[in-house]
Amino acid sequence: MKVLKKISELNRKRKWKLFLNLIKPDKDDTILDVGFNETEYSHVDNFLEKNYQYPEKITALGLKEANEFAYRYPKVNTVKYDGRIFPFGDKNFDICWSNAVLEHVGNREKQIFFIKEITRVSKSAYITTPNIFFPIEVHTRVPLLHYLPKKIFDKILPIFGKSWATGNYMHLLSKKELKDILKEAGVSSYRIIENKLLFFTLDFVIIWGEKTFCSD
């Protein structure tokens, strides 16, 4: 388990470096963080807020009241919403950051809507999501079983004490599914970076918008 935690930490740092190098945020950019952690279960949770040098430029959007979060990051603006329409005007933010949230918003229709909302309220986006074909499921840390049909996977998880990860908790994506969702959401110019661990793609970083100058 310590090895997996170390891998997670190194991967967060790698994704942070990619964010700085690819998006190049500056002191005037406003950033929307979609999906902050009210309770931190790991020292790498809320990585943006922990590391960004201009926290007053961040607005954190989430499903819960930001009590613990607001105490830890008093300079960050927080907004609670219902998980559907983002409560902001069009192109209200320069950048949207969303780390490992897409797989948790619900089914394909909800994932498409989520991408549409990110595109609507932000000029550029940097999001990440795990690769369904990585041999260890990164949330439960159970190997291989997530290759099974979801209904069967959900029935097996409680045997491992992982019933919390069943149902709509997560809908993992392949690269092809991710591309299809981006297309259906109206995102035509984007870049997908595959973060590797050994010979496998651990997760995807997806960037698009004014600050990215990329196409796929």
Describe the model:
There is one protein chain. With 216 residues, this protein is an alpha/beta fold. The protein has one domain (2-132, 172-209): Rossmann fold (3-Layer(aba) Sandwich), CATH 3.40.50.150. The protein is built from six helices and seven strands, in the order αβαβαββαβααββ. The radius of gyration is 17 Å and the shape is globular. The protein starts with a helix and ends in a 7-residue tail after the last strand. The model has no long low-confidence stretch (mean pLDDT 95).
What's the domain count? 1
| Range of strand content | 15-25%
What would you call the structural class? alpha/beta
Radius of gyration: 17 Å
* Topology as a string of helices (H) and strands (E): HEHEHEEHEHHEE
Short note summarizing the structure:
This protein is of the alpha/beta class and 216 residues long.
Features:
216 residues; alpha/beta; Rossmann fold; seven-stranded mixed beta sheet; 29% helix; 21% strand; globular
Secondary structure blueprint with pairings:
Blueprint: H1 2-22, E1 31-34, H2 47-51, E2 58-62, H3 68-72, E3 77-80, E4 93-99, H4 108-121, E5 122-130, H5 150-156, H6 175-184, E6 191-197, E7 200-209
Parallel strand pairs: 1-2, 1-4, 2-3, 4-5
Antiparallel strand pairs: 5-7, 6-7
